[in-house]
Design brief:
The complex is a heterodimer of chains A (142) and B (140). Chain A has one domain. Helix content of chain A is 73%, strand content 0%. In chain B, 74% of the residues lie in helices and 0% in strands. Chain B has one domain. With 140 residues, chain B is mainly alpha-helical. In chain B, helix 1 packs across helix 3 and helix 3 packs across helix 4. Classes of the chains: A mainly alpha (142), B mainly alpha (140).
Chain lengths: 142, 140
Amino acid sequence: MDTKRLIIGTIVGGIVLHIVGYLIFDVAAADFYAANEGPASGAFRDVPMQGSMFVANLAYAALITLGLLSRGTVPSIGAGALIAAVIGLLVWLQADVFLYSYTTIRPLLIVIVDPLLEFVHAGVSGAIISAVLARVPKSAMA
Amino acid sequence: MDIKRIVIGTIVGAVTMHIVGYVVFEILTAEFYAANSMSGLYRDASLQWAIALGEFSLTALITLGIESRSSTPSIAGGFITGAVIGLLLWIGVDFVLYGIWNAQNLTLTMVDPLLGAIQYGIVGAAIAAVLARVPKSAMA
């Protein structure tokens, strides 16, 4: 594993996930999410904690970058988008379904729509990570 | 990509995850989760079909991670792959949740990914142990 590429991909991906996530979830789909809260009222913060979100996005980006680098070569932008989109879909499908199974915070509609939006969210990030990593030479140590 | 191995790994992983998850989260640490979460948050009885669906999704991801390596998976390698996926995945999910809601406190947000890493590591080891005995198809 090329640590330099992993770090660059994680940082680039974390920033992209944060920006794209803000546009999708806090701007484009904010009303949809607000209209579909479950009966556990008062669960959501008035203002999201951006620091916490960024830690989360770095971990998410590290997972996506590991997926992109797992075959030993950097995938094309299209393949990178697809790999990341599948990771995002599977990650959030299981997370949303787990939360739905244990809590009353979100209705079933959100459980279905949220992973699809994450497919787009992670896919865009994977395309950009792949585009950046294609320009980073492999280290001799890798 | 060998579909047969992906399917076998996903099924084995989902069964393992269900058992390990029940022991870890519903027996060993149930009181810890209740004490560090908003009251009224949890269902009186969890939805088993939804848990199973989530487990299949996740173990497909772990199996894809293990299968993306060209070599035959070892149990230790499977454990590490599963643990890394579990740790990164739940840091991502838990900190997003902590960022948008007040249903869980910071202690739970930090402990949950560590427990997830253990759970998913065990799942990864089980998947690798089984896949090591499944011959790769000539088509893959």
